[in-house]
Amino acid sequence: MNKSTTFLMGSAIVAGIMGCSAPETPTPVADNATEVAADSINANAKLLTGPDLTISYFGYPSTPPSIGDGAGGRAFIFKLVESNIGNQSTADLVNDEIKIYQRIPIGAVGGPILGYQYSYVKSFYRNGILKPGASHTFPSVAGGCGCSVWLDRESMSVPGPIELVAVADGAGKINEINETNNTSPVFRIYR
């Protein structure tokens, strides 16, 4: 049985499952069908190589965070780890910008949440190569245990927990095999 017959039989099975009728006569297959299929596979393989940056951890550090109040706002300390889950290293000359946003619910207080607004808070930068399977933990701040952001009183006035998200490759400078997994899960700070 050749490959074109196998494909048509597979189509007939799928058509039967989907409730459609299979074609009565086989569809002719071009002589170069195998070559065309191989070229398509090679083209797709090229798209599946490259770095893939994610935020692998965004939350409280292992030791209790020290949260400081100041005139007009509050500092929050957290741990931030970026990982390359792709199959190629990032370029050496590209500065990766990780952006932190505050996620603010839209809707009436006490009512249903209709959506979210994202307010930029701060950026952290990573320079140099990040190899496949490698991670970068952002440096401690002044001997502390993680990164920090400052939220002013207006940002703190949102009811409920403060919600932050981190975005790997926040400036969109790195071509990745998957651009949809750059945003971390929500980090909630209860106060």
List descriptors:
single chain, 191 residues, alpha+beta, Immunoglobulin-like, 2 domains, 5-stranded antiparallel β-sheet, 4-stranded antiparallel β-sheet, 9 strands, disordered N terminus
In short, what is this structure?
By secondary structure, the protein is an alpha+beta fold.
CATH topology-level name of the largest domain: Immunoglobulin-like
Number of helices: 3
Q: Please describe the biggest sheet, giving its number of strands, its sense, and whether it closes into a barrel.
A: 5 strands, antiparallel
CATH superfamily of the largest domain: Immunoglobulins
Rounded to the nearest angstrom, the distance between the terminal CA atoms is 68 Å
Shape: globular
Task: Describe the fold and architecture.
The longest helix has 16 residues, at about 5-20. The chain has helices at about 5-20, 35-45, 155; strands at about 55-60, 70, 75-85, 95-105, 115-125, 135, 145-150, 160-165, 185-190. The relative contact order is 0.20. With about 190 residues, the chain is of the alpha+beta class. It contains 3 helices and 9 strands; from the N terminus they run H-H-E-E-E-E-E-E-E-H-E-E. Strands 1, 2, 3, 6 and 7 form a 5-stranded antiparallel beta sheet that branches. A 4-stranded antiparallel beta sheet has the order 5-4-8-9, with no helix packed on it.
